[in-house]
Write a structure and sequence with these properties.
Strand 1 and strand 2 form a beta hairpin. This protein starts with a helix and ends with a helix. It has 2 domains: about 130 residues, Four Helix Bundle (Hemerythrin (Met), subunit A) (Up-down Bundle); about 130 residues, Nonspecific Lipid-transfer Protein, Chain A, CATH 3.30.1050. The protein is α+β, with helices and mostly antiparallel strands. The chain has a 5-stranded mixed β-sheet. InterPro entries: DinB/YfiT-like (IPR034660), MDMPI_metal-binding (IPR024344).
C-alpha cells in the first residue's frame, strides 16, 4: 500500500470510530476486551497522542501522556484532537524519516503510519461492536495488509537476545479473495531479558509470506518481492493446518474480533492447532 493510503486510513478510521461511539454511554462494555467505552476512547486518544509526538521527533519513552478527562465530552474531544494531530504529523512527514519504535523492524515514519492505520481500523471495529452495529469491512487491499501486519509485527520472531526453536509444526493461512498466503512455523521462544533478567520459555512462531499480493511497509526500496507461492515452501512439507478465508475475516479472527465460522480448515492439526494459533495471537496482540 502507498504511504498516503495509510495516512488517509488513520484519519478516516478515527472519524468512524468517534461516529460509532457517539450514542454509546461511557459505561457500555466493549465486547472484545475488559474495557468500557470510556476506556476505549482513552486508549485511542493516548495511543494517537503518543505516536503523533514520535512522528514529530520525540523518543517514545519520553512522551508524556495527557491527563485522562473525567467528562465524557472532553474525552471525545481529546480523541478528535489526538487523531487530527497524528494524521497531520504523518501528512507533514516523509515515509523514510526516522522515528522511534518499540519494534526491531521499525525506525521510520512509514512503519508508524502502517501500524497506526491498522490500530485505528481494529479499534473502529471495537467501537462498532460496542455500539451493537454491523462491522463495516475495509477494502480488500487494506484487509490483506492487515493480516500481513499482525502476523509480521505482532507474532513473527523473537527479540535479538532470544532464541527461536522450531518444533516442526507448520500452519498455512490463505486468503480466499486475493492471492496471498503465509506459512507459520511454530516453536519455542527461549531467552533471558537483558534488562529485566526474566527467563522466557514461550510458544512462538516464525512467519513467511508466500502469497503474491503486494503487502508491506510503504515506500521501502529494500523490501523483497513476494516469492512465488509454489517455490516458497519445501514441496515435501505438508502443513499440519491450512486455514482459508476472505482476508477481512482472517484479519478479524487474528485480532480476536471474529470467529473462524465459515473458514475452510484442513490438515491433521484440527481444532487443537486452531486453538493453539488463536492463543498465540491473543498473547501477541494483548
Amino acid at each position: 500500500m502507498e504511504y498516503e493510503a495509510y495516512v488517509l486510513t488513520v484519519r478516516e478510521e478515527t472519524e468512524r470510530f468517534l461516529e460509532a461511539l457517539g450514542p454509546v454511554v461511557p459505561e457500555a462494555a466493549v465486547p472484545t476486551c475488559e474495557w468500557t467505552a470510556a476506556d476505549l476512547l482513552w486508549h485511542v486518544a493516548e495511543v494517537q497522542h503518543h505516536w503523533a509526538a514520535v512522528v514529530r521527533g520525540a523518543h517514545g519513552e519520553a512522551v508524556v501522556a495527557p491527563e485522562r478527562p473525567s467528562d465524557p465530552a472532553d474525552l471525545r474531544t481529546l480523541v478528535a484532537t489526538a487523531g487530527t494531530e497524528l494524521a497531520t504529523a504523518l501528512a507533514d512527514a516523509r515515509p523514510d524519516d526516522a522515528a522511534w519504535s518499540w519494534h526491531e523492524d521499525g525506525g521510520t515514519v512509514a512503519w508508524v503510519a502502517r501500524r497506526q492505520a491498522h490500530e485505528a481500523l481494529v479499534h473502529r471495529v471495537d467501537a462498532e461492536l460496542t455500539a451493537g452495529r454491523a462491522v463495516t469491512p475495509p477494502t480488500v487491499e487494506l484487509a490483506v495488509d492487515g493480516v500481513d501486519e499482525v502476523l509480521h509485527v505482532m507474532l513473527d520472531g523473537v527479540p535479538a537476545w532470544g532464541t527461536f526453536t522450531p518444533d516442526g509444526v507448520t500452519v498455512r493461512l490463505e486468503c480466499s479473495d486475493v492471492d496471498a498466503a503465509w506459512l507459520l512455523r511454530l516453536g519455542r521462544f527461549t531467552g533471558t531479558g537483558p534488562e529485566s533478567g526474566t527467563a522466557y520459555d514461550l510458544d512462538a512462531a516464525a512467519v513467511e509470506r508466500i502469497g503474491a499480493a503486494s503487502v508491506g511497509a510503504p515506500d521501502d526500496p529494500d523490501a523483497p518481492d513476494a516469492p512465488d507461492p509454489v517455490e516458497a515452501v519445501d514441496p515435501g512439507t505438508d502443513p499440519a493446518l491450512v486455514v482459508r478465508a476472505p482476508a477481512w475475516h482472517l484479519d478479524l479472527w487474528l485480532w480476536g474480533r471474529g470467529g473462524p465460522e465459515g473458514f475452510e480448515v484442513s490438515g491433521p492439526g484440527g481444532a487443537d492447532l486452531v486453538e493453539r494459533l488463536r492463543l498465540l495471537l491473543a498473547d501477541a496482540t494483548q
